[in-house]
């Protein structure tokens, strides 16, 4: 829809207010005179000359009642009035005592004979502007009606509806109907409102999703915490009541208690890390670190768990120079989660291949294992909070299902991306990329 600026709209309204009265005036004049000449027309000239000649030729009959009667009839036909006065101002003949000079054209002359002024004549010719004045008033009214309609339609109504829409938004109702306008400035406000409403709708939808996610996390974590707590309490009560009567049984009970407490510690730690990645986005520590060095540290910290299952960890391309800008502690946490996930889901005597390379403006890395990989049902949900594949829902591998979620959030907070898939030769593969730190930063 084409729009015009409010300055042009104002000028156009003023033009209409000036043009319409003039058009109506000209139209009324033409309808009355059949001419666009605003001076005396030809017929009026002829009538004026005829009346003048008639008065001059009949100077001796000015006081004759019969002549006056006949003369008045002729003047009525020509829509004219006449007054004849002596040189001293006495009335000789006057055809209309209630004449309104403002609506007549007056022609004055004196009749002189033999050097003597016989009379002073004033001819009043009808020149009424009533029709034209009425036409001008009508033109003004029509122009005002047109301008008022345009102002209401294109300015007042859109502004009123926008004000009403703003009150609806303030009350939380985002399903509003925004009016359109041909005025550029109001159209810009309309577009701004539309963008704001769309953003608010997205924000509200995201807030709803976050609230649903938080409620789900709280419920799921509460459930996950209850299981080891229930078991821990049961075994501790057994020790207290002397159910474990032999040293072997006591050692078994203690081992289970230690395992459950470690599982609780892991659950709490993952929940804390999850919350930290959710709220720490604006407060990231930004220093330049070598991602290959962070990967090496993560491999070293998780090497004992890999050795317990006789898993071979192969590091390829972990050379210096993979510099990224970010928080080293969060990045190490993300890499620990990824490698820990690979260790827990890789069978005994398997292997894990970790790569890190620098490519143009990105640092890429991948972690591949020889486990069962992700099923087609699992892949779309791998990074969802608390999601775990069916094979791990018995908690035998530990964790709250937040590790991959935390890793993805950390990588995204650093301007990168993390994706999950399966290697062509089998097993799961997690690939990621982080922007390469610019020289001098």
UniProtKB/TrEMBL annotation:
<dbReference type="GO" id="GO:0005886">
    <property type="term" value="C:plasma membrane"/>
</dbReference>
<dbReference type="InterPro" id="IPR003594">
    <property type="entry name" value="HATPase_dom"/>
</dbReference>
<dbReference type="InterPro" id="IPR036097">
    <property type="entry name" value="HisK_dim/P_sf"/>
</dbReference>
<dbReference type="InterPro" id="IPR050398">
    <property type="entry name" value="HssS/ArlS-like"/>
</dbReference>
<dbReference type="GO" id="GO:0000155">
    <property type="term" value="F:phosphorelay sensor kinase activity"/>
</dbReference>
<keyword id="KW-0547">Nucleotide-binding</keyword>
<keyword id="KW-1133">Transmembrane helix</keyword>
<keyword id="KW-0067">ATP-binding</keyword>
<dbReference type="InterPro" id="IPR004358">
    <property type="entry name" value="Sig_transdc_His_kin-like_C"/>
</dbReference>
<dbReference type="InterPro" id="IPR036890">
    <property type="entry name" value="HATPase_C_sf"/>
</dbReference>
<dbReference type="InterPro" id="IPR005467">
    <property type="entry name" value="His_kinase_dom"/>
</dbReference>
<keyword id="KW-1003">Cell membrane</keyword>
<protein>
    <recommendedName>
        <fullName>histidine kinase</fullName>
        <ecNumber>2.7.13.3</ecNumber>
    </recommendedName>
</protein>
<feature type="transmembrane region" description="Helical">
    <location>
        <begin position="133"/>
        <end position="151"/>
    </location>
</feature>
<feature type="domain" description="Histidine kinase">
    <location>
        <begin position="220"/>
        <end position="438"/>
    </location>
</feature>
<dbReference type="Pfam" id="PF00512">
    <property type="entry name" value="HisKA"/>
</dbReference>
<dbReference type="GO" id="GO:0005524">
    <property type="term" value="F:ATP binding"/>
</dbReference>
<keyword id="KW-0472">Membrane</keyword>
<dbReference type="InterPro" id="IPR003661">
    <property type="entry name" value="HisK_dim/P_dom"/>
</dbReference>
<keyword id="KW-0808">Transferase</keyword>
<keyword id="KW-0812">Transmembrane</keyword>
<keyword id="KW-0597">Phosphoprotein</keyword>
<feature type="domain" description="HAMP">
    <location>
        <begin position="153"/>
        <end position="205"/>
    </location>
</feature>
<dbReference type="Pfam" id="PF00672">
    <property type="entry name" value="HAMP"/>
</dbReference>
<dbReference type="InterPro" id="IPR003660">
    <property type="entry name" value="HAMP_dom"/>
</dbReference>
<keyword id="KW-0902">Two-component regulatory system</keyword>
<keyword id="KW-0418">Kinase</keyword>
<dbReference type="Pfam" id="PF02518">
    <property type="entry name" value="HATPase_c"/>
</dbReference>
């Amino acid at each position: 829809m084409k729009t015009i600026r409010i300055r042009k709209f104002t000028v156009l309204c003023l033009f209409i207010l000036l043009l319409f009265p003039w058009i109506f005036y000209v139209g009324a004049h033409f309808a009355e005179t059949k001419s666009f000449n605003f001076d005396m027309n030809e017929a009026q000239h002829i009538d004026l000359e005829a009346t003048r000649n008639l008065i001059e030729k009949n100077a001796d009959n000015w006081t004759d009642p019969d002549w006056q009667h006949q003369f008045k009839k002729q003047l009525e036909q020509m829509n004219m009035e006449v007054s004849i006065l002596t040189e001293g101002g006495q009335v000789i003949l006057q055809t209309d005592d209630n004449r309104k000079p403002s609506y007549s054209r007056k022609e004055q002359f004196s009749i002189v004979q033999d050097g003597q002024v016989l009379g002073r004549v004033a001819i009043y010719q009808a020149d009424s502007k009533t029709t034209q004045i009425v036409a001008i008033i009508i033109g003004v009214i029509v122009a005002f009606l047109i301008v008022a309609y345009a102002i209401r339609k294109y300015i007042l109504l859109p502004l009123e509806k926008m004000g009403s829409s703003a009150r609806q938004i303030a009350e939380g109702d985002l399903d509003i109907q925004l009016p359109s306008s041909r005025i550029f400035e109001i159209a810009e406000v309309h577009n701004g409102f539309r963008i704001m409403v769309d953003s608010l709708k997205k924000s509200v939808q995201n807030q709803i999703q976050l609230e649903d996610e938080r409620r789900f996390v709280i419920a799921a974590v509460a459930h996950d915490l209850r299981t080891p707590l229930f078991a821990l309490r049961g075994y501790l009560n057994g020790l207290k009541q002397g159910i474990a009567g032999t040293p072997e049984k006591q050692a078994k009970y203690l081992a289970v208690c230690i395992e459950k407490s470690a599982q609780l510690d892991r659950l709490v730690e993952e929940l804390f890390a999850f919350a930290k990645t959710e709220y720490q986005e604006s407060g990231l520590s930004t220093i330049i670190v070598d991602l290959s060095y962070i990967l090496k540290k993560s491999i070293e910290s998780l090497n004992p768990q890999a050795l317990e299952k006789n898993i071979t960890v192969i590091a390829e391309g972990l050379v210096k120079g993979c510099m990224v800008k970010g928080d080293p502690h969060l990045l190490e946490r993300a890499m620990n989660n990824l490698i820990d996930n690979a260790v827990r889901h890789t069978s005994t005597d398997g292997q894990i291949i970790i790569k890190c390379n620098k490519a143009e403006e990105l640092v890429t890395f991948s972690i591949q294992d020889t486990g069962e990989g992700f099923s087609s049902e699992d892949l779309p949900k791998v990074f969802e909070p608390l999601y775990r594949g069916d094979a791990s829902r018995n908690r035998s591998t530990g964790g709250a299902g937040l590790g991959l979620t935390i890793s993805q959030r950390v990588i995204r907070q650093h301007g990168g991306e993390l994706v999950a898939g399966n290697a062509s030769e089998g097993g799961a593969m997690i690939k990621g990329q982080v922007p390469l730190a610019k020289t001098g930063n």
